[in-house]
Amino acid sequence: MPLPVPAAAFSSGRTHHELLLIEVGSAAAPMPPGRCVGLYQFGLKVADSDDDLREVVRHLTEHGVPIQRASDHTVTHSLYIADPDGHQIEFYVDVMATEE
């Protein structure tokens, strides 16, 4: 269903949306350069396995979304993209530690 304002709603299927981004338009103040107070990154658990994360890579690539980097944080495997305002978005899967 189209939204009545320029916006994007994201849902995992548990509810109508877990995240709603609303475009504020040209009247919004620009994001200041350099380090600043406020939101710069948020993370989303997108799946449960590396195979699922590879599917996210395929989907992003297929839709022309540049991947900034990937990282192995030992407890998570992550991909990073940027939204149009430069905020970093992390897509991750939890990784089970192996016992030796």
Automatic annotation (TrEMBL):
The keyword Oxidoreductase applies. GO terms for molecular function: dioxygenase activity. PROSITE patterns: VOC (PS51819). Keywords: Dioxygenase, Oxidoreductase. Residues 1-94 form the VOC domain. InterPro entries: Glyas_Bleomycin-R_OHBP_Dase (IPR029068), Glyas_Fos-R_dOase_dom (IPR004360), VOC_core (IPR037523). SUPFAM superfamilies: Glyoxalase/Bleomycin resistance protein/Dihydroxybiphenyl dioxygenase. It comes from the Bacteria. Transmembrane segments: none annotated. PANTHER family: CATECHOL-2,3-DIOXYGENASE. This is Glyoxalase/Bleomycin resistance protein/Dioxygenase superfamily protein. It comes from Nocardioides alpinus.
